[in-house]
Amino acid sequence: MKNSKIQWCDDTENPVMGCDGCELWPTVGQVLAALISLVLRFTKLSRNEVRAVIAPIINEYETTTELWHDRELILIDLQQEFPDMPASDWERTIEKQFKCYAGTLHLARGGRPDDWSEPVSPGHAAIFERPVNYPGRMAKTAKRPDLRGEVRADKPWLNGLPRLVFVSDMGDALSEGIDFDYLKDEIIDVATGPDGSRHLWLWLTKRPKRMAEFAEWLRETHGVPWPDNLVAMTSVTNRTTRSRIDQLRKVPARFRGLSVEPLVESVDLDLTHVDWLIVGGESGKYSREFDIEWARSLKEQCSEANVAFFVKQLGANAVEDGFPVELRDSHGGDWNEWPVDLRDREFPSGFGRCPHKTTQVA
Prior knowledge:
Order of helices and strands: EEHHHHHHEHEHEHEHEEEHEEE
Strand order of the largest sheet: 1-4-5-6-7-8-10
Number of domains: 2
Low-confidence stretches: 353-362
Structural class: alpha/beta
CATH class of the largest domain: Alpha Beta
CATH topology of the largest domain: TIM Barrel
Strand content: 5-15%
Mean pLDDT: 93
Radius of gyration: 22 Å
Helix content: 25-40%
Number of helices: 11
CATH architecture of the largest domain: Alpha-Beta Barrel
């Protein structure tokens, strides 16, 4: 997407749409468990008894995409089995499981196809959990002009940098079924080509182990090193996912970055050989709390490790000292509403200039 609203890039591009799962996208089993837990709050039945009623309704589905599009029928069945349960509780419990914005956009834009083989909206995966390749997108984006020297009036913190392209905001190109040859053709060859080499590509994955395997395959099979203008990035959302950083360090990239978003708890990170850290709170109807002290802690950790620190947004449910932070922006992305000490949007020096810190005083 050209002129992306995402604060840390100019554009986004997706050679692959869809993702085969992460902590932000529920499995059918996780939806089932959430519904069982809901019923147990209102009944004296045992867990096994409740499961025996709900499981046949939910386990009919192979993917949560299919489950989502059938949720009205599911709610009718559940209401018949447990007539004393408010329908809104069932619906809310299902909706709260879907945290991934890429997945929810697929649900909204892709629609429900008749046979699940083709999306209603072209360009999306019919079923989010079954990624689809879209060749040629990267090459088209690569032809866009270099932005070095151009003024980005809406994103002044990007001024002086080449065009920054976020790769894989609507899926994960390193999902298990994606062929390495395809990734070489669509990402590596484009990023190093005459058009793509003018830009900086920010490749984000929740599968850094597979990214490291891909890098080794490139070197051993084709003698191709990791491009300097391809930033290797992974996501950390909680303490459990910190292990991804160890896998990211195995990618022989010139630059490595972390997207610590949506951050749902305080984290202490080993930032050795990490160049950039982006932090943000969760947005959406059922967003979890984001304590801005978590961002302050990460800022201090980045300062100690000499890592560029970038605050993307405070999210829809930011708190400070236990109280809600009043924000008009629904994503908490307007830094004019933030505490002054968190108005930091830095980049690694090698991105095109010395580390840049823009601090706007209210």
